[in-house]
Amino acid sequence: MIIDDGILFRQAAEKDAGTLVRLHDQAARWMQKHAIDQWKPGDKDAAHFRARMADGEVWLGGDGDGRVVGAYELWWSDEDAWGVQPPVAGYVHRLMVEREAAPAGAGRRLLEHAERRIAGTGRERARLDCVSTNPRLLAYYRAAGYRVVGELPNKVGKDGRTYGVILLEKRLDRLSAV
Questions:
Q1: Cβ 13 vs Cβ 50: under 8 Å
Q2: Tens digits of per-residue pLDDT, 106-130?
Q3: d(CA 164, CA 157)
Q4: Residue 63, class by beta-carbon neighbours within 10 Å (0-12 exposed, 13-18 middle, 19+ buried)?
Q5: What's the distance, CA 131 to chain centroid?
Q6: Mean pLDDT score of the chain, rounded to an integer?
């Protein structure tokens, strides 16, 4: 368990899959309510999160009372969006916060935790993508120090839907590891 500015971080375990599904669906409903066409409730099930735990890392952030306030997935490759790449980056996916319980700035602290995890492996870049139709999220990532490095206009989702994503990265050469 790692404590970072009041948030306790731990790697997710199989028993956390239901919590992750709940967080995802809650974030998806918030997006729909705010006319953001990105995630849909029910898109990610427990099997998805278990697979991500097996392939990479899934982290939970909690408060002092043990309530989960957010989570993220950390991948070591992302060929669907970035193609085959040398091992110089970690890829952050599904950054989620529990809007009722998360303290202000929790999303940024989750992102910073992911960046330190990546830096701790000796990789020099954090990468992520966001859908082209979400300028609010793009502005959020840019404010966190990410720069646009490309666009994939025809990404095909697992459901067959085609959408555009903006590719962003941040250099991590000055971060200390977790």
A1: no
A2: 889 999 999 999 999 999 999 999 9
A3: 10
A4: middle
A5: 13
A6: 90
The predicted model scores a pTM of 0.90
Q: Measuring CA to CA, which residue among 56, 164, 155 is closest to residue 114?
A: 56
Q: Which two tokens stand for residue 110?
A: 């989750």
Structure tokens at 152: 């994939």
**Tokens (6 digits) for 54:** 């097996």
At a CB cut-off of 8 Å and minimum separation 6, what does 133 contact?
36, 37, 38, 163, 164
171 is written with which tokens? Answer: 């250099």
Q: How far is CA 88 from each of CA 17, 35, 131, 142, rounded to the nearest angstrom?
A: 29, 35, 23, 20
Q: Which amino acid is at 98?
A: E
